[in-house]
# Entry
Amino acid sequence: MARKILWASLALVPAALIAEFVLHVGDVLLFLLSALALIPLAWLIGEATEHAAHHTGAGIGGFLNATFGNAPELIIALFAVAEMKFEVVRGSLTGSVVGNLLLVLGFSLLFGGRGAIDRESSFTSLALVAFAVLVFLIPSVPSWDGDPERHALALLSIPVSIVLLIVYVVVTWISLRRHREMHLMEEPSDVQAWSLPVALAVLGAATVATALIAEALVGSLETFAREAGLTEFFVAAVIVAIVGNAAEHGGAVVVAYRGRIKLAAEIALASSAQVAVFLIPAVALLAWAIEPLALSFRPVEIGVVGASVLITGALLAQGQSSRARGVTLIGMYIAAAAAFYIAGER
# Structure
């Protein structure tokens, strides 16, 4: 049923493009249409990536997943860089980390109920996010005094990004076999994969469509935020971050509801770690082709991500899930969103 709804909701993509290029609708309606259209596109990219991975093997499949699985967030971030909306870039990325750690994992535990989770895998992901927070302090702390966009901080962000990417590659290489076996055990054996040309064609088309929709989303974000009485930072850290991950979020919850809580927790935590140590440094390095981007995160961003790691680690310390833990995580996400709202603009 959910898949049928997602396939049907792909009609929102041409609707959003017609609204922008033909009807020239207002920015508020355009933002809402674009945000909704990104949800099935994110799902379709994930679907095509998964089918392509059936033909490419674990190594290339993992690369495809890391690259295209984060395509909506990456494209949104790069368009925001081009628009010089650096707070939007950083806010959407930290919001994605927090959303996976608290909101997605919270709903997964809530719908999955009691069960065992993989402590080793979970704490590996949490350790990666914690390491990223510590490394982000290098360009962030100096930005709390003076211009956060100054060139020296953008330069300082380059070695920080390289270190994070190296750590990501090394950890992924070490854990690839273990993770692959875990997912194969959880995956139905009767899955019929698309042919590789079809999967790549769908992947390419969905990525191009995502780029067009992301451009409309970023272009209308400022007006939407103003009309809604919200800051651009809050819209990016909460609304855009949720939209960019919506399909993946829903997938984790559905998996948990079907009783595969271990896999659901893996999806949420691994996604959070992937954003922290892969997507954020990748955006910082790719941004140099457009405009230098400093990883000068605000105190509220560093604090919220750090607190999310500590709280999640404390709740998962026993290697067990429960609905009470899920409700706690969801409550903490609401508190995090409130902190982003209260923080206002820098």
In short: The radius of gyration is 19 Å.
